[in-house]
Amino acid sequence: MNSIEQLLTALIIIVRYGLSNSILVSTLAFFLGLILGLIFVFIEVLGGRLASWTVNLLVVILRGIPPVLLLFIIFYGLPSIGISLNNVVSAIIGLGLISGAYQSQILRSSIQAVAARQMEAALSIGLSKWSAYTSVIFPQALRLSLPGLVNEYTIILKDSSLAYAIGVVEAFTQAVHIAQARFEYFTPLLAVALLYLAICFSLSQVVNYIYLKLRVLGYGQ
Amino acid sequence: MGSDKLLFIEDLHKYYGKHHVLKGVNLAVNEGESVVIIGPSGSGKSTLLRCINLLVKPDKGRIVFDNEEITTGKIDVRRVREKIGFVFQHFNLFLHLTAIENVMLGLIKVKNYPREKARRIAEEALLSVGITEELWNKYPAQLSGGQQQRVAIARAIAMEPKLLLFDEPTSALDPELIGEVLKVMEKLANEGRTMIVVTHEIGFALKAADRVVFFDDGKIIEEGSPEQVILNPKTERARRFLFSIRELYRLE
Q1: Strand, coil or helix: B37
Q2: Which domains are assigned to chain A?
Q3: Which residue of A130, A203, B164, B165 has the smallest Cβ count within 10 Å?
Q4: Shortest CA gap B249–chain A (Å)
Q5: Which CATH class is domain B5-83+161-251?
Q6: CB B174, CB B145: distance < 8 Å
Q7: CB nearest A118 (choices: B79, B94, B156)
């Protein structure tokens, strides 16, 4: 087998038997993170001082934990207090929690970018604070957040390779398995690297397209 | 207090931290009157307007609007704001909504009108400020500054307010776009709407104002007919300010 063939077969095996877990873990973790991020930011913006202080503390803690450590805590640590989760679920929850902290930051900075003048205008036509947020501030903040959120997805996708550490057979794990079977690491690792790169590059094109659309709406000049 | 007084402001004070922005403002505005407030930047004119629709909470003094004191804690702020239209220096249109959706939002969310009725009113309001059908579905960023400000005026008048507040509505516009906005404002004044306009446009004041108020350092220094205050001010401060503005216009 020549090396191009080796690369291609590795690629095919990784796509068929590993990639689906990578996408599953990162996509579910992303949406868990989005839900958490929205909850965090709602509490920060609309909640009282104590509530938003608590959320801030939680965000600082989550951002301060290495992802692989959190995965270990959830998969190996929680069983000792009676919570046993399988490795895929553990990976989704762990990566989702951390991403929630980052996504709340992305959403918050967009809200701050929209807020002052738009809020004044919304209140001046008689909208309640709640309606001002739901009909004016949040819809714009979400649009502004889109590029950041897509970027965040690419970060989770790459971080999902950490699930290797708790035995989830995802793309990177599959590449390592091929390498171990062939006694040759370079080609399978190159294959999986190209795969991550291809996905991240396509998503970066999506981000560029969103920026273009946002400019039409008058954001970010 | 006479019932023809729509707005009555008494000894209004506002502090931002230690900065004393409004230093005892007294102002009464009759139904149907258009009042122009002129004065140097940073003198508290915008803050005064924002106090009237309670975007800014005054620290001391009284505002009575539409026979109701609005400076007490018990007031329903939203009901007051619904009756007062506000036009901002930077238009503040909702960027994610089209021109017509900008006008419809308050009608739907505040007045609870059905969509069809809201659309009809919005179309009428837009036409009355000269925004024609081909612009209705454009986003603010696709409109010129003058068009944006006219949409903002339509958004305010569609709510059928009893009072319109304009905060330097032409200051952010390119010079060639100022005229179209002033023309709309003149029309509104001639229709007998009650309005308070903060502006440096003395031409507009002479043509459309019933009364001109000169404002400086947090207080009203002088008020009277447009001709009197603009062309023949009594106080030294007003004379100096107006002289420099008139000088500017002569040079143009």
Answers
A1: strand
A2: 3-216 (1.10.3720.10)
A3: A130
A4: 31
A5: alpha beta
A6: yes
A7: B94
